[in-house]
Amino acid sequence: MLIKIQDIQQVANEVMNMLHEEEIEVINDFHDAVVAKDIEKIDELFKVVLFDVEDHFQEEENMMLQNNYGYYQVHKSDHDTMREKLAKYFERWLAIKSPIELQGFLENEFKKWLILHISKWDTEAALHLGHAH
Ligand SMILES: [Fe+2]
Ligand SMILES: [Fe+2]
Fold first, then answer.
1. What's the CA gap between 64 and 104, in Å, rounded?
2. What's the confidence (pLDDT) of residue 55?
3. Residue 38 CA to ligand 1 centre (angstroms)
4. Which residues form the Hemerythrin-like domain (predicted)?
5. CA 17 to ligand 1 centroid distance, Å
6. Which parts of 72-127 are beta strand (E)?
7. How many domains does the chain have?
8. Domain that holds residue 116
């Protein structure tokens, strides 16, 4: 298991907490396939990860826009950094199919990024989006 639910800070917005729980499940399944070096499963789950991450980021960005949230741009640009990284690693996966490379990315980059992003940007945004969403 790459990320435990306790690793992730709870935020003051239930939609965001739900998005994070979903994402942890998807990422942990993906990480299992990567560790098992199951090429077919990685092919399948990488697309699920891309879809899920995009859904997570877009839902947050929509909520921030609807609430005229002041730090929208800087929060979105942190999402964009991860969007670009994932796109780059997906292209590399299609070209070289290296589970080792993906394992390094998940364990050394993605996990840290997600924990930090949630404890900083999502926690801040959630305070302004409130409980009602
Ligand atoms: Fe988030
Ligand atoms: Fe976010």
1. 32
2. 98
3. 28
4. 14-124
5. 8
6. none
7. 1
8. 10-47+68-129
